[in-house]
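Posting for a labmate who doesn't have an account.
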Amino acid sequence: MIDLYSYPSPNGIKIAIMLEECGLEYRVMPVDITRGEQFAPAFLAISPNNKIPALVDDSAPGGPLTLFESGAILLYLAEKTGAFLPTDLHGRFAAIKWLFWQVAGLGPMAGQAHHFRAFAPEPVPYGIRRYTDEVNRLYGVLDRAVAATGYIAGGYSIADMAAWPWVQPYERQGQRLEDFVHLQRWFEAVGRRPAVQRALTLGHELHADREGYRYLYGQTAAMVDEQRREREGRP
């Protein structure tokens, strides 16, 4: 059995899409990151970076395998199933390089756009402009990537699963899909896939309230340690 520790944010959804696409049996272990559950000692033992998603595969060769970081999880599931990652050298690394592009670029930049546009306690015009513009640039990169074949790396792969959930909240990022003809076509095609639709039924991302801000933003090493001790019932 595979346990997916997750929250219905883009990084959580991308793993649910892969599990659904592969038809693997799994259980969702909800982690409410707006209420500090990511600091629970049991979760930190699996995901020491106190972030979702994380995965435990009890059926892995050699014993249970624990993973954190969404890119690593997607690669593992692709290798486990032999699906959605080409086996030839050029195809394989085409998908991998675009997976890395998402986890290093599109995700972090879109996340910053989300923060400054929707969650910052006070408007920061430079931050809003900086990250909205950078996401726009990255949308342009993605638009050109999908123009030839309809998918990011030739055929449908883990690269598409990684990127799609980060484009889904495009309005929150200050973007218009109609400005990117090829990207819009790709986004709509991937969104129609039954596995993607099933993954989206696992929940909806919640907007953090004032209490949630305490757990999501302004984290420091000392704050994480304090939350861990609090969860353990230690002073």
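Reply:
Got it, the structure tokens are right above this. The longest helix spans residues 89-119.
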